[in-house]
Automatic annotation (TrEMBL):
<keyword id="KW-0813">Transport</keyword>
<dbReference type="Pfam" id="PF00497">
    <property type="entry name" value="SBP_bac_3"/>
</dbReference>
<keyword id="KW-1133">Transmembrane helix</keyword>
<keyword id="KW-1003">Cell membrane</keyword>
<dbReference type="InterPro" id="IPR000515">
    <property type="entry name" value="MetI-like"/>
</dbReference>
<feature type="domain" description="ABC transmembrane type-1">
    <location>
        <begin position="284"/>
        <end position="473"/>
    </location>
</feature>
<dbReference type="GO" id="GO:0006865">
    <property type="term" value="P:amino acid transport"/>
</dbReference>
<comment type="similarity">
    <text>Belongs to the binding-protein-dependent transport system permease family.</text>
</comment>
<dbReference type="InterPro" id="IPR001638">
    <property type="entry name" value="Solute-binding_3/MltF_N"/>
</dbReference>
<dbReference type="InterPro" id="IPR035906">
    <property type="entry name" value="MetI-like_sf"/>
</dbReference>
<dbReference type="InterPro" id="IPR010065">
    <property type="entry name" value="AA_ABC_transptr_permease_3TM"/>
</dbReference>
<feature type="signal peptide">
    <location>
        <begin position="1"/>
        <end position="28"/>
    </location>
</feature>
<feature type="transmembrane region" description="Helical">
    <location>
        <begin position="290"/>
        <end position="310"/>
    </location>
</feature>
<feature type="transmembrane region" description="Helical">
    <location>
        <begin position="452"/>
        <end position="472"/>
    </location>
</feature>
<feature type="transmembrane region" description="Helical">
    <location>
        <begin position="322"/>
        <end position="343"/>
    </location>
</feature>
<dbReference type="GO" id="GO:0043190">
    <property type="term" value="C:ATP-binding cassette (ABC) transporter complex"/>
</dbReference>
<dbReference type="Pfam" id="PF00528">
    <property type="entry name" value="BPD_transp_1"/>
</dbReference>
Amino acid sequence: MVNQRVKPILVALALFLGLFAFGQRANAAEPNYVISTDATYAPFDFQDKNNEYIGIDQDILKEVAKRNHFTYTLKPMSFNAAAQMVANGQADGIIAGMAITDERKQVYDVSDPYYKTGVAWITKKGSKINSLSELKGKTVALKSGTAASNYGLSLQKKYGFKVKYFNDTDTMYNDVANGNSAATFEDMPVIQYAIKNGLKLEIKNPNNPGNAGAYGFFVKKGQNPQLIADFNKTLKEMKADGTYQKIVDKYLKSDQKTFTGSTEDNKTTWGILKSNKTAFFNGLVETIELTVFAIILASLWGILLGTMGVSQSKFLRGLSNTIIYAFRGLPLMVLAFFIYIGLPGVIGTKIPAFTAGLLTLILNEGAYTGAFVRGGFEAVDRGQMEAAQSLGLPYGKAMSKVIIPQGLKIMVPSFVNQFIITLKDTSILSAIGILELTQTGTLIVARNSQGFRVWAIIGIMYMIVITLLTWLSNWLEKRLNK
């Protein structure tokens, strides 16, 4: 009887996930490259006021695609995740203001340099720190995985400062601007753009950049040689016909309001909400979709695990305990990176970000659900089972008719709490590029540098949805307990 109850759940889960996998395979036949990027790296990669991905990198990429007659799907996410996607075969290439280094050449094939750069060291505007030696004993903020970060780290021993790491550029900048860190290291054109856009930081070595280098377009080593060849050929053509210089001047010499929207809009919370209403709405919809699907499927998976946990079979009980222990013990972000970035390198199949995020939530939230479901069933008085069996009911029917209905009523408060946790946990999936509310906020802040107002809006939106979800859950609880 228990097995008959399990089959529909497994079939529904397989069909649901199969829809995403099928969609991915259906598009695979199109001449389309998957390109990853870090969309918080203005003026090379960022969103404009219309939520379109623009920048020096993006305009170059569009021109390469146009002249070589291919299309591409852009995957914006944190820099480290974007690089790992290419290294593990999830993406065909990465363009993200990525510096060319000997270490990276061991893992990737790289194009000809398309932009020369150097590293600036930066403090809060008005800071009395004017030399690197004055950083001794203080904390320096670094963005993990970048060449600027490596350069800063190379100076740590000499100048005796401490370091802490961030995954996105804007958070690192604001950590320094707010005085939490004394300084940071960043590529010169990137920090110059941010300061023009109103960020209250100060470059300490404007005429003497360190670690001079260049940016390149990267693909996995030994893969996509034609893509590298097309990029190099088009880059030479663009430099010869003036297109390249027009792109660079467009972002480094133009009025920044051209891309970020009206300065007046950024001065008020209402202005930011009004000018970014479409982005906020789309992020909210993505968050709600993830939450609804995850709640339904994780609940079904958790009920199955909980039922297995009180089974008469030692094998099923052991399997349930093992699954619950394993997935409750894994941090959600680690699990998300494993499924989205690590697993495809093993199985040889790309996993769409939404599917990877949903699987992450199902496995993690389902494990917690399974634990309290098992506890709920065990909380039902043992005499109920004994009475049912004394009336001739087999174990499976006694569970489905007697124990499970009573146990589920006991668990309703736990389900309500888990639903709220699931909603909040969707924010972690921004790390793999899912454009939900948190990632939406990150992209908007990268464009307008209004962290306080943007995150206040995001926080209020989460609170409203959580309140509505709580009301719905409480209503269901009252209906079930009637």
